[in-house]
Structure formats: C-alpha cells, structure tokens
Amino acid sequence: MIRDQETLNVLLETISRFVKERLKPNEELVAETDEIPENLQQEMKDLGLFGMSIPEQYDGLGLTMEEEVSVVFELGKTSPAFRSLFGTNVGIGSQGIVIDGTEEQKRKYLPQLAKGMIASFALTEPDAGSDAASLRTTARREGDHYVLNGNKRFITNAPTAGVFTVMARTDPEKKGASGISAFIVEAGSPGLTLGRPDKKMGQRGAHTCDVIFENVHVPAANIIGGQEGIGFKTAMKTLDKGRLHLSALATGTAERMLDDALHYAMERKQFGKPIADFQLIQAMLADSKMEIYAARSMILDAARQRDAGKDVSCEASCCKLFASEMCGRVADRAVQIHGGSGYVSDYAIERFYRDVRVFRLYEGTSQIQQLVIAKNMIRNAS
Ligand code: COS
User: For a substitution probing ligand 1, which of 156, 236, 313 has the most ligand atoms within 8 Å of its CB?
Assistant: First the structure.
C-alpha cells in the first residue's frame, strides 16, 4: 500500500541521490577500513533510515511494507554494509517490539530506535541455527526479574547495539517452540559480554559477534508482549517481514551488479567491438534483467498482501528464496562478463560477489525457505 505517491516519490528521489552521491563514493573506504564514517552514519539518522518501519506515533517514518521495499530497492544499489547498519533497526531488531510489544515497551524503546540507537536480534546460537526452536539460552524467573544465561552467535550489529531482542527458554520442560519467550535486554547490563568480531567473507563495515549472557538480570516488564511462551512466534513473525525486506535488498543489489556489468560490456572491446554486441554476453544480461523483473514483481505483490493484513509467511519465503538465489546468479554472471577484471578488486563486482553470498544464508537459508513454503502448501491443502 502506498499512502501518498507524491510523498513516496520525494523520499525515493532523496534516497537515490544519497546512494549515488554519498554512499557509492565511500564504498571502497568502508571496505578498506571496515568502518562506516561517523558523518555518513549521522546522515542516515537524519534521513530517518533507522526508523523507517517504526510507526509515526513512536517517531518513525511508519512506512508500509510496499513503501519499505521500494526504498530498499534503492538502498540495494550500494554496498550492503551500509544498509546493515540500520537494517536490524528496520527489521529483526525492532519488529518484535512493534508487532508484539506492550504499549509501555513501545513507548520506552521505539522512539530511541527511530533516532538511531541500534537494535540487534539474538536468536541464533552455536547449536541452534536453522533449528531455531532448539535454542538453549535460559531465562529463569526470580521475583520481578528474569536471569538469562546462554550464548548467541553471529549477531548483526551486536558490537554497537544499545538494545537486544533476545529469544530464551523460560520453560525448560518444553523443549520446542512453546517454551521460548522474547526479551528486550539493554546493552551494558551486568553479565552481558561480547565475543570478538567475526571475520566474514564480505560486507566489511558490517559487524557481527557472539553475545554471551552470564546471569544477566532483565526486568520482568521486558518480556515482549508481557507473557511467556510466545517468543518463538514473535521471532517468526519478525522474520516474515525481515525476509521481504531482504528480498528487496537482494533485488536492488542485483540491479546494481547488472548495471555495472552492462556498462562494462558496452565499454570493453574485444574482437574489434564492444563485448555487449556479442550474443553470449547479451544472453547473460537478458537473463539477469528478466530475473530481476520477476523478483521485483513478486516482492511488490507480497508486500501489498502484507499491507492488506494477510499472512505472508509463504510468500515471504518464496520471495527470499527466489531473490537471494537470483542475486547469486546475477553476481556470478556479472563477474563472468567482467572476465579477469571481475576477479580483481579494481572493480566493485569482486566485492559485491562476496558481499551477496550471505543473502542465501541469513534470516533463513534457501533450504529453510523451501521447508516453510512446502509446510504452508501442505497445511493449506489438508
Ligand atoms: N508466524 C506466526 N507463527 C509461526 C510462524 C509464523 N511465520 N511460523 C511458525 N509459527 C508458529 C507455528 O504455528 C507453531 O505454533 P503452534 O505450535 O501453536 O502450532 C510454532 O510457531 C512452531 O512452528 P513450527 O512447528 O513450524 O517450528 P519448527 O521448529 O518446525 O521450525 C522453522 C520452523 C524451521 C521454519 C524455523 O525454525 C526457522 O525459520 N528456522 C530458521 C531460523 C532463521 O531464519 N534463522 C536466522 C536467524 S536471524 S539472521
């Protein structure tokens, strides 16, 4: 749903200009230094990017899903590390509170997140990745507090987070999803420590690490939704939305890589003419264009369905599966079109090829998306 096309157009133009004039020229600097300059971080805050999906009454932009994916298509056209800085605020870090939080929790935390305090989402553990419901972090009730113990892994933005949405087991008797609750845990809580930053394949400038809980006391008022046992569902609902957001990101990034490949093909001459004139190159360009168009269309359709209040768990997984796999294929073709130049760091495509690999892994691997789609199909047919 687009609330006002003209307002959205102004926002999209602003974002597009910001990407072109401020982010693209700094891509290499970020890759070299592994840091996003402070002034750019501030500009992102000023643009409202951290509060994109936070309702207006809590100081965010309150974008609908269709508006959000439209913005993310644009943001995809530069290094994904930039988006990662506010990505957890827009998606998995904040949405547990937006979707299931109590009014008090929303009022306390959402305005701070909209302003730029970083929110992280702590679900994954060393022994609980795809099988998220097997997580072992515990939350034991003691008076008006819960005491958290456990280890979370690969937590995006943990090194700079002000607050964490943490999934932990409140009922040790229940081994599966129903024993899990979600908590808002503030950084700096005694007993909460961070592991060393992970050395990743790509996306330098975006940081992940372990988060360790050793007898961390969390006020009972910080259990999301005010009740035990609903945390896994909160996490899944959050991921449904996050998967649509990531699909748009993968599609925008594919557009950027294709654009780079097209321009390279039009400039690079072999056998006496631009390689873009050769049909085997044209086939790679055309296949990429077609797949990007398909991804855009399905993402917009799913976003509209979510805005209409429909359950889009299945559609979000279809989009995540198709868009992230498509992005991988486009990255591969774009390197191929660049030839040997695609393998060296003189061209952005070498970096993008590594950066986009994680799209097929995080917020659910491609195989998990297949399981979600099939589960939905079977449930609807029976
Ligand atoms: N929305 C609301 N509720 C949902 C839901 C959704 N999208 N998906 C599942 N649930 C509910 C189910 O309805 C079920 O509730 P009931 O017991 O009341 O019926 C409960 O949650 C458990 O669901 P399910 O039985 O499907 O859980 P599984 O343990 O089989 O796990 C998968 C399901 C594999 C899909 C889940 O663990 C998953 O998404 N794994 C990947 C995790 C991931 O993306 N990690 C990345 C971390 S963030 S970078």
Answer: 236
Query: 313-339, pLDDT tens digit by residue?
Result: 999 999 999 999 999 999 999 999 999
Is the distance from CB of 328 to CB of 356 less than 8 angstroms?
Answer: yes
Q: How far is the CA of 211 from the centre of ligand 1 (A)?
A: 22
The Cα–Cα gap between 215 and 196 comes to 20
**Residue 123 CB–ligand 1 contact under 6 Å:** yes
| pLDDT tens digits, 94-107 | 999 999 999 999 99
Using the 3D structure, point to which of 65, 84, 115 is the last residue of a domain.
115
Instruction: Tell me how many domains the chain contains.
Output: 3
Residues 245 and 359 in one domain: yes
Q: Which two tokens mark 326? A: 């498509």
Ligand 1 pocket residue status of 313, Cβ below 6 Å: yes
Helices 313-338 and 348-355, packing angle to 10 deg: 150
Rg (Cα) of the chain, in Å, rounded? 21
- Active-site residue flag, 363: yes
The domain in which residue 255 lies consists of 233-381
CATH of the domain at 85: 1.10.540.10
**167-216 pLDDT per residue, tens:** 999 999 998 999 999 999 999 999 999 999 999 999 999 999 999 999 99
Substitution site in 154, 175, 233, 240 for ligand 1 pocket (most atoms within 8 Å of beta carbon): 233
Q: Is the CB of 243 under 6 A from ligand 1?
A: no
- pLDDT tens sequence across 29-45: 999 999 999 999 999 99
Q: What residues have CB less than 8 Å from 358, skipping those under 6 apart?
A: 200, 201, 202, 203
Nearest CA to ligand 1 atom 47: 363
- Same domain for 128 and 193, yes or no, is yes
Is 99 a pocket residue for ligand 1 (Cβ < 6 Å)?
no
- This prediction has a pTM of 0.97
Residue type at 59? D
